[in-house]
Amino acid sequence: MLDRPRIPILIITGFVGSGKTTLILKLLGELQRENPDYRMALIKNEIGDVNVDSQLAASAYMQGEVELFGACICCTNVGQVGDALATLDRERSPDRIIIETSGSAEPIKLLVEVNRLARETGRYEPDGVVSVIDVQNWEGYAHTSFTAKLQARQTDLIVLNKWEEAGERREDEVRDQLGAMDVDTPYVRSDHGWVRKDLLFGIDTKLAKDWITNGEIHRHNHSSEMECLSVTLAASHRTQGVDLRKLEAFLQKAPKDEIYRIKAVMYTSSTPNNSDGSNAKASDQSGQQLSKYILNWAFGRWTWTQDSSAKPDDPTLRMFVVTAAYESTKWQKRLEGEYVCLEDERPGVELTVRRMK
After folding, report:
1. For range 15-43, the mean pLDDT
2. CB 39 within 8 A of CB 94
3. What's the count of helices (H) and strands (E) in the chain, helices before strands?
4. Other beta carbons within 10 Å of 4
5. How far apart are CA 21 and CA 250, in angstroms?
6. Is this model's pTM higher than 0.90 or not?
7. Phi and psi (nearest 5°) for 14?
């Protein structure tokens, strides 16, 4: 019997007024349209205004999404995060938790704490750090706030927000300033505060149920900031799994400025390794030649989770790769030629790598 799935934890940071709450609310709208039963909980670390959380919940209610909140908890220091997560897990059973930091928070301290709790409890899955930058006002607070600079550095992805009002010249200046600070983190533009969940979120069983079971992905107008590849490896009979050596080489070599997310469901005869070198947790599945695993890869870090819902007609591998703009063609060719195959190549194998339109 497998343990309950671990809860993905996404950290969203950014200076005061950068648009973090707007980003979350628009994510809720997208989730509600795709899966009304999905439960996303929020831990909000805000200084001073005790009514901020209730205002956020009220805004979500106006969009018909109050049920997506497991709860809202205000934290004043990193030591309270463990209690907040445990309370949400015990009382609300969320599918995902977002931690929205205060404008003065240093995200690396919070990430260290989340990683520690994940190791000790086995209940959580760190799912990345996203920093929101207000393009219109970045120059003012970047010059005066050391924390604002740390938030830009200590992150997996930068979201350039409010660039529409600022104009392209101001946006170019912000990008130049980030370069001068030696910030090599990948960045994307928001669309008036909205960024696709496929970029911000890793995979989890409930959110990606349709994709895991039959490969269906909800269609959207894709942002020009990113491109998506769909990979399917199907065999006429399932006697051998994915060649882990080649697939793990892809996970190790994928550059963070070209590939943002990799999500996969695969069958293999071996136990895969997480990015920290540990083996994926496996349960006893006696009598089964191959085991099924779910991959979450985000900005150079990844974990594998075993899944017991194996079906005889599943493909051996189904993978979804989110790339930066203009990078998908190169990686499509590399996936086809280098990284995706069975443990022992044989006739009757079909590999399809296509760009999502």
Report:
1. 82
2. yes
3. 12, 13
4. 9
5. 35
6. no
7. 155, 160
CA distances from 320 to 131, 259, 307 (A): 23, 11, 17
According to DSSP, the residues that pair with 9 across neighbouring strands are: 97, 126
Residue (of 71, 80, 95) closest to 45 by Cα position: 80
Distance of alpha carbon 349 from alpha carbon 357, whole angstroms: 25
Give me 189's structure tokens.
């533009």
φ, ψ of residue 158 in degrees (nearest 5): -105, 130
92 CB-side CA count, 13 A: 24
pLDDT digits (tens, 9 = 90+) for 78-136: 667 888 888 888 888 888 888 888 666 677 778 888 888 998 998 998 888 898 988 98
323, 225 in Cβ contact below 8 A? Answer: no
Residues 6+ apart with CB under 8 A from 180: none
Nearest to 354 by CA among 328, 323, 334: 328
CB 270 within 8 A of CB 245: no
Backbone angles phi, psi at 54, to 5 degrees: -65, -35
User: What is the identity of the amino acid at 219?
Assistant: R
Q: Which pLDDT value is given to residue 115?
A: 87
Residue 132's beta-bridge partner residues?
Answer: 14, 159
Closest CA to 60 of 103, 25, 87: 25
The edge-to-edge listing of strands for the beta sheet with 226-235 is 301-307, 291-298, 259-268, 317-324, 226-235, 349-355
Determine the Cα–Cα distance for residues 147 and 151; give it in Å rounded to an integer: 6
338, 342, 346, 351: CA torsion to nearest 10: -60
Q: Which element (helix H / strand E) includes 246?
A: helix 244-253
Q: Which of 15-19, 125-129, 281-285 is least confident?
A: 281-285
C-alpha triplet 219, 225, 231: angle, nearest 5°: 50
Q: How far is CA 31 from CA 25, 132, 224, in A?
A: 10, 20, 21
Residue 232 identity:
T
Closest CA to 261 of 326, 181, 176, 196: 196
Residue type, 119: R
**Residue 138 reports pLDDT greater than 60:** yes
Q: What is the mean pLDDT of residues 30-57?
A: 65
